[in-house]
Write a structure and sequence with these properties.
Blueprint (H helix, E strand, L loop, with lengths): L8 E3 L8 H10 L4 E3 L3 E2 H6 L14 E6 L3 H14 L3 E6 L4 H5 L10 H12 L6 E5 L9 H13 L4 E5 L10 H4 L7 H10 L4 E5 L5 H7 L5 E4 L1 H5 L7 H5 L9 H17 L4 H5 L12 H11 L7 H8 L11
Parallel strand pairs: 1-2, 1-9, 2-4, 3-4, 4-5, 5-6, 6-7, 7-8, 8-9
Helix pairs in contact: 3-5, 5-6, 12-15, 14-15
Family: Belongs to the Dus family. DusA subfamily.
Keywords: Flavoprotein, FMN, NADP, Oxidoreductase, RNA-binding, tRNA processing, tRNA-binding
Function: Catalyzes the synthesis of 5,6-dihydrouridine (D), a modified base found in the D-loop of most tRNAs, via the reduction of the C5-C6 double bond in target uridines. Specifically modifies U20 and U20a in tRNAs.
Length: 329
C-alpha cells in the first residue's frame, strides 16, 4: 500500500488542460483524488513574467509537475513550490514532444538515468515534501526491461519517493505527442513486473485506463492509478472515485450540484478579470451521455466567449439539462 494514500488515484498532468480552473472543478467532484498541475518548466518559474505556481487552496492534495534537467534550477523551483504550499513535486521524464526534447527534458531524459538521479537528489536535498518521477517504459529502440530497471535503480539510489509509469514507450522521432499516446502498444504486464521486482518503491500506472473497474484491477498489482483524458472528457467519473476507490461513504454529488457549487468560484474569477470560457471549457463533458448534454455544450460554446459573459450563461446552459436522480447503495 502506498505511503501516500492520495496517490491511489490521480488525475494526470495535461498541458493546456489541467490549469487551476480545471483543478478547482475536479476537486468539487472528488475530495481525495490527487491532482497535478500542467508541466511547468524551470525557466518559466524562474524567469517568466507570470505566476506559474498559482493555485487555489481548495486543490490539495496537489502535485507540481516540473520540466527541466538542470539540478540547480530544479532545486530552486522545488524550494519555491514548497514555500507556496505544494504537497509534492513530480519530475517529468515522459513527455515526448519536440519542444520538450529541445529543452533537454521529458522522455529523452530516460537515456540519462544518472542525470535524472542527480535532479531528484538535488530537489530532495532542499525540500521535505515528496519528490516523485513520471516516466515511460522506454524510448525509441531503448525499450528493454533492463533499460527501464536501470532508470528505476538510479531513482531508488537517491530515495525517490514514488514513480508513475505510463505503460507505453515513446518514439522521440516520427510520432507526434498525440500519436505517442495512442500508437505505441500498452504493456501493463511490464509495469506489474517492475512493481514485483521493486516492491519497496511506491508505483502508479498510467495509460489507456478508462473505467474505475479497470482501475481496481490495476490496484491489485500497484499502489496507484492515474487517469488523464478519460477524466477530462468525462469528468463525472471523478464523482465516483471517493466511494469506489477510497472507501469514503459521503454522498455523491449530482452533476447539477457540482455546477451550482462552481458558480461562486466563477463569479470570483470573473471579478478578477478572468474570461468565462477559460473556466467553462473544462466543464463541457460533465453531462456526457445524458439528455441535454449537447444543448449544454452548445450554449456554453456559443456564449461563454462573448464580452461580458457571466454566470447567467452557465445558469441558462444548466437549465437545458433535465435534473438527474441519483440512487445510492
Amino acid at each position: 500500500m502506498s505511503q501516500y494514500p492520495s496517490a491511489r488515484f490521480s488525475v494526470a498532468p495535461m498541458l493546456d488542460w489541467t490549469d487551476k480552473h480545471c483543478r478547482y472543478f475536479h476537486r468539487l467532484l472528488s475530495r481525495h483524488a490527487q491532482l497535478y498541475t500542467e508541466m511547468v518548466t524551470t525557466g518559466a518559474i524562474l524567469y517568466g513574467k507570470g505566476d506559474y505556481l498559482a493555485f487555489n487552496e481548495q486543490e490539495h492534495p496537489l502535485v507540481l509537475q516540473l520540466g527541466g534537467s538542470d539540478p540547480r534550477a530544479l532545486a530552486r523551483c522545488a524550494v519555491l513550490a514548497e514555500q507556496r504550499g505544494y504537497d509534492e513535486i513530480n519530475l517529468n521524464v515522459g513527455c515526448p514532444s519536440d519542444r520538450v526534447q529541445n529543452g533537454m527534458f521529458g522522455a529523452c531524459l530516460m537515456a540519462e538515468p544518472g542525470l535524472v538521479a542527480d535532479c531528484v537528489a538535488a530537489m530532495k536535498a532542499v525540500v521535505a515534501i515528496p519528490v516523485t518521477v513520471k516516466t515511460r517504459i522506454g524510448i525509441d529502440e531503448q525499450d528493454s526491461y533492463e533499460f527501464l530497471c536501470t532508470l528505476v535503480e538510479s531513482l531508488l539510489a537517491v530515495g525517490t519517493d514514488a514513480l508513475v509509469v505510463h505503460a507505453r514507450k515513446a518514439w522521440l522521432k516520427g510520432l507526434s505527442p498525440k500519436e505517442n499516446r495512442e500508437i505505441p502498444p500498452l504493456d501493463y504486464e511490464r509495469v506489474y513486473r517492475l512493481k514485483a521486482d521493486y516492491p519497496g518503491l511506491t508505483m502508479a500506472i498510467n495509460g489507456g485506463i478508462k473505467t474505475l473497474a479497470e482501475a481496481r484491477e490495476h490496484l491489485r498489482h500497484l499502489d496507484g492509478v492515474m487517469l488523464g483524458r478519460e477524466v477530462y472528457q468525462n469528468p463525472y467519473l471523478l464523482a465516483q472515485v471517493d466511494r469506489e476507490l477510497f472507501g469514503v461513504r459521503a454522498e455523491q454529488p449530482s452533476r447539477h450540484q457540482v455546477i451550482r457549487q462552481l458558480l461562486p468560484y466563477i463569479e470570483q474569477q470573473l471579478g478578477e478579470g478572468c474570461y468565462l470560457g477559460n473556466i467553462t471549457r473544462h466543464t463541457l463533458g460533465i453531462f456526457q451521455g445524458l439528455p441535454g448534454a449537447r444543448a449544454w455544450r452548445r450554449h456554453l460554446s456559443e456564449n461563454a466567449h462573448k464580452p461580458g459573459a457571466g454566470i447567467e450563461v452557465v445558469e441558462a446552459a444548466l437549465a437545458k439539462v433535465p435534473e438527474e436522480m441519483l440512487v445510492y447503495s
